[in-house]
Amino acid sequence: MDIMIHGGNRVGGVVKAPPSKSYTHRYLFLSLLSKGESIIKNPLKAGDTDATLEAITRFGASGDFERIVGVETPIEPMKPIDCRRSGTTLRIALSIAGLVNGESILDGDPQLRKRPIKPLIDALKELGIEVYTMGEGLPVKVAGGRLNRDSIEISASKSSQFVSSLLYLSMKTGISIEVVDEPVSKGYIDITISCLEEAGVKIYRDGYRFFKAESTDIRGRKYSVPGDYSSAAYLMVIGVLGDGVVIEGLKKDDPHPDRMMIEILRDAGAQINIRDSRIEIEGGKLESIEVDIRDSPDLLPPLAILSAFIDGKTIIRGIEHTRYKETDRPSTLSYNLRVMGVKTEVDGDKMVIYGGEPEPGIFNSFGDHRIAMAFIVASIFLDGRSIVKNADVYRDSYPTFIRDIKSIGAKVMNI
């Protein structure tokens, strides 16, 4: 489905942030591994999290997004697990499959088949879990069971999800995890640890180099999913470029790495007030900035869009691992920015955007939910009509996105 946007209208108002995708994934997997019933309040019901719900059901859990009855030890799936386009689902499910006394088959969309999982697969093999792949990716078959060692080393330079995945294995087996390099997106490891500790799991750690969970059986409990800073970043850009936005439902002390967007916008000249769970955002005299997003890679699309509207040269560093997302994001962003008439340069770990007066056009999401949302947001502020092709993929992470931006004045329609 394509979406047409009529730009140049006044946009601003109050929006409730969508539930966090990161927390919903983690609570669902915790519910699977818990004894009894877990209740999840305010879960994100989207394409990616639906893949996780289906995965835990294949592993033996029963219920829906709000109420899940776990099995403590996952069972052998009778059918292959389709992770769709969700990297979090795939990576955590791989370690969960290592706990199964039997075989599990995991697969996903063509996009997911391109995303890196080899360091995690190698780590599972070293632990004694049998893993069979087609080349270095999907589909993958995991024959779980007993481990033959109690520690493992892992590289997290391409994804922090490798560490998060092994932490779920650690909570059941007590293995220790040593990270051999500097992890990217470290805040997502903090989110995983926060969720595990909330479930009653004791975690030992040394910074981001060493992790070990105390092997324990956990009981079902109530979880509450906070608002999503990654999705809210698009609303923040609307607030800065438009007539101001108030975003409700964000957790003030959330370890989510994309909270960094608040400070980035302040550095660019935006006016931001935080009142409990409300963030009030207005534009100001915006200036180009230089920022490193190594720990907040999902901010690249909204930052690239913001930069297109700011005079001067914006430099975004720490982008190397954004090439391994749903798409090679520096490339897909550069393609669409050029359609807008915005000059960009990508050099290794750095992206440079020369902002000014972007123009409307026909943009391509390339099947990436964050690229789709980025250019829908950009089109709101372009004079004239723009089209974003294959834009319905926004539902992977923010299914109420179109409804929410319409509520504050955006003129969009399906075509």
Which secondary structure elements does this structure contain, and how are they paired or packed?
Layout: E1 3-7, E2 13-16, H1 21-32, E3 34-35, E4 37-41, H2 47-58, E5 62-63, E6 67-69, E7 81-82, H3 87-97, E8 103-107, H4 110-113, H5 118-126, E9 130-134, E10 137-143, E11 151-154, H6 161-173, E12 176-179, H7 186-198, E13 203-206, E14 210-213, E15 218-219, E16 222-224, H8 229-241, E17 245-248, H9 260-268, E18 271-275, E19 278-282, E20 290-292, H10 300-308, E21 312-317, H11 329-339, E22 343-347, E23 350-355, E24 362-364, H12 369-380, E25 384-389, H13 401-407, E26 411-414
Parallel strand pairs: 2-17, 3-15, 4-16, 7-8, 11-12, 20-21, 24-25
Antiparallel strand pairs: 1-25, 1-26, 4-6, 5-6, 8-10, 9-10, 12-14, 13-14, 17-19, 18-19, 21-23, 22-23
**Can you tell me the CATH class of the largest domain?**
Alpha Beta
Radius of gyration: 21 Å
> How many domain modules?
2
Count of helical regions: 13
Main sheet overview: 4 strands, mixed
The overall pLDDT average reads 96
How would you classify the helix and strand content by structural class?
alpha/beta
Q: Spell out the CATH superfamily of the largest domain.
A: Enolpyruvate transferase domain
What is the CATH architecture term of the largest domain?
Answer: Alpha-beta prism
**Which regions have little confidence, pLDDT < 50, spanning 5+ residues?**
none
Proportion of residues in helical segments: 25-40%
Shape: globular
Alpha carbon gap, first and last residue: 7 Å
What's the CATH topology label of the largest domain?
Answer: UDP-n-acetylglucosamine1-carboxyvinyl-transferase, Chain
User: Which strands sit side by side, in order, in the main sheet?
Assistant: 24-25-1-26
The total of beta strands comes to 26
- Please indicate the percent range of residues in DSSP E strands (runs of 2 or more): 25-35%
